[in-house]
Amino acid sequence: MTTNPTLPVARTVATAWRLVAARPRYTLRTGWIPALAIFGVGAAFGDARAGGLDPGEAFWAMVAAILNFALLVLALVAWQRSALPGAKLRKGTSALRLGRAEVLAMLHFPLVGFLFIPLLLPELAENLLALSRQGAVDRDVLLPVAGVAVLVFPGGLLLTRASLVLVAIAEAGPHAIRLLDTANRVWRLGSGRSIRLFLVLYLSVLPVIAAMAVLPDTLPALAQGALHAVLVTLYVLVAGGALARAYAALGGVLGPAAQHKTRRGA
To answer: Of the given ranges (38-42, 137-141, 158-162, 258-262), which has the lowest mean pLDDT?
Structure first.
């Protein structure tokens, strides 16, 4: 292994997609539960975003959204682990498990939430354009837009680099890790590679974002909801796979022996 490994952007992006295309059964086993949950919540609480729910329904919509987020984290961890070199694919009707790594990843919800920021960009741009045509763009609109813009860039450079810790958590699986040491080690992996990591993440998910942006409004509601659920789940898998392959390319994979030493604090 070189002392200063490079991160090939195009190859890493291509590998993230190739993992999905080459393993359709495992992709289905990883994604069918969160996709079904997203579809079900969308069908049951379709008026939530339009403010058409009473307080009781809004509460249960929020609970369902949290459950959806948790399921997507399970899928993210499972897929990241499977995307690492030499990984063994889990058997069964679902690849999802709930263990130490999954719970620890959920506790890092700000980093997981950051991975969804690119999904917001098309809708944000569309709303801003519509408001500008109406002459309604004011300070109250520009402030949240500016906040999201900062999260994308330059904040995205730091957050993408920090998100590699999610891969380290997935790699450790059910084994305990020293979180501070792991975070420091992973942060050093991305030194001088922040822009490349940013490009790997955004270019990987770009096809999914484009597909979501062009979903026709003329489709029946159920069909549109099903496609949306599939695309959101695919988005999570591709983003997770891209980060996992970047982590591996930068020399982040410890291997069983090194992991054993790390867990023992050696």
So the answer is: 258-262
